[in-house]
Amino acid sequence: MKARATETQRKTRIQMENEEKILDAALEEFSAHGFRGATIDRIAEHAGMSKPNLLYYFRRKQDIYEALIARLLDTWLEPLRELDAIGDPLPELQSYIRRKLEMARDFPRESRLFANEILQGAPRIKRLLETELKPLVDEKAELLRSWMKAGKINAVDPRHLIFSIWSTTQHYADFDAQVQVILGPDRGAEGRFEDAARYLETLFLDGLRPKASGGETPRIRNL
Amino acid sequence: MKARATETQRKTRIQMENEEKILDAALEEFSAHGFRGATIDRIAEHAGMSKPNLLYYFRRKQDIYEALIARLLDTWLEPLRELDAIGDPLPELQSYIRRKLEMARDFPRESRLFANEILQGAPRIKRLLETELKPLVDEKAELLRSWMKAGKINAVDPRHLIFSIWSTTQHYADFDAQVQVILGPDRGAEGRFEDAARYLETLFLDGLRPKASGGETPRIRNL
DNA sequence: TTAGAGTTTTATCAAACAGTCAAGATTTCG
DNA sequence: CGAAATCTTGACTGTTTGATAAAACTCTAA
Question: How far apart are CA B169 and CA B111, in angstroms?
């Protein structure tokens, strides 16, 4: 009999290899065109196999998509999970921002996959967001609130703070096409991310209001 | 003969009405599913007319899309255009942020349409970005630089500053599904945007580092 | 080495899809 | 009014798409 992915059964070498190939190709397609815009044909082609063969491993388009999401969500939430009560608040936040920016740099397709899904109303992962994302954010919001109460960071709505970290960092993955048009070709991808990191540090730590309220040349912060 | 939309010719009442209906329905569809995910059938259905009738006004799917983009881009760039050298830098920036946030609140479909397009690599509007967006951003970046030289705002890369304003404000339109999961049903859309406005003002003006470097309760800024 | 589990392919299907065509219905305007 | 211009529709075409069936092939473990 067939050993479908759904059953709890040892996977063959070929199975593991092919599921890997399929999920990678699917990430490419889904992140570039969204669920509806992606086609099984293209995923199969990109994975280097025939469509019926692909459908042998995942019976339906949606199954591929769900397997992808399930595999990626944990990785995606990891940086926030690492936000810890142990360290000092400001350095902790800085390092969370850095980790998120690194993820945008290293996993842009994953970022776009989630962006596409949320953009379209999250119809396929709303439940996951409620059970996985919401509790984690609630927990970390509580942590942020305790830092605010202790006067370690400015008092703001911690959930909006988290939104702003997500949006500013993921922007460099999700809106890369636009970023490239505006920044031009000078300075490669690494340079762009260095600049972004430097800017975001200034923004999140000090904002735009100059320290010396007079009219002199302001100091430029270093990393 | 037919008076197609492409020709320079006076438009009939019916033509104007129907093009309007079509573009509105198309905005709904394209913003929710992206270019490939949207279908002419659904646009026609949503516009309340038959598919051949819709295709009488716009011969191809891409024509609808391009007409939409052309109609919206100007509106979309308006807030940035209004960023002016006349006013004081910090209030000017504050009001730019507020205008962008208002657009996210009032035109979420437009925001998602652009987000979808950029997310998918901007294949259909890259040229427009280069000819319309880039020069505008360059001009405003120069303005921001002059403010920085004068010590009126902190010295940062002005283009990254603009990115962060775009991303944080548009986040509330583009990622609304996620925002709603996290903020919960309490506080309607207006409340959410008020909270966001308050938070973003603090972030962009002062950042998170508390003013009093000691350990006391920090002041909460008011609007 | 060989039987059977596991994998791949060819052929196929029905639905969805973008787009066409010509005929019929309606509006506009002299 | 009435004819020309404009608008609308049903029927249709060729293609793409998600999905299935079954035969043919390959691998693996006893």
Answer: 10
A52 CA, D19 C1': Å apart? 9
B13-59 to CATH, choices 3.40.50.300, 1.10.10.60, 3.40.50.150, 1.10.10.10: 1.10.10.60
So what's the ipTM on this one?
0.90
Residue A36: nearest nucleotide (C-alpha to C1'): D17
> Could you say which residues from 121 to 150 on chain B have a Cβ atom under 8 Å away from some Cβ of chain A?
121-122, 126, 129-130, 133-134, 137, 148-150
Instruction: Tell me the whole-structure pTM to 2 decimals.
Output: 0.91
| Distance to chain A for B221, nearest Cα, Å | 8
Q: Which helix (H) or strand (E) is A64 found in, with range? A: helix A61-82
CATH (one of 1.10.357.10, 3.90.1150.10, 2.60.40.10, 3.40.980.10) for A72-223: 1.10.357.10
- B178 and A33: CB-CB below 8 Å? no
| Closest protein CA to C1' of nucleotide C20, residue | B52
**Domain regions of chain A by residue span:** 10-59, 72-223
What pLDDT digit, counting tens, does each position of A107-164 carry?
999 999 999 999 999 999 999 999 999 999 999 999 999 999 999 999 999 999 999 9
> Which residues have CB under 8 Å from A105's CB, separation 6+?
A172, A173, A189, A193
Structure tokens at A143: 């942590």
Q: Does domain B71-206 have CATH number 2.40.240.20?
A: no
Mean pLDDT of successive 10-residue stretches along chain B, which has 223 residues: 45 92 98 96 97 97 96 94 93 96 97 97 94 97 96 96 98 97 87 96 93 48 44
Which residues of chain A neighbour B151 with C-beta distances below 8 Å? 210, 212, 214-218
If you ran DSSP here, which 8-state letter would residue B132 be given? I
DSSP, collapsed to helix, strand or coil, labels residue B88 as coil
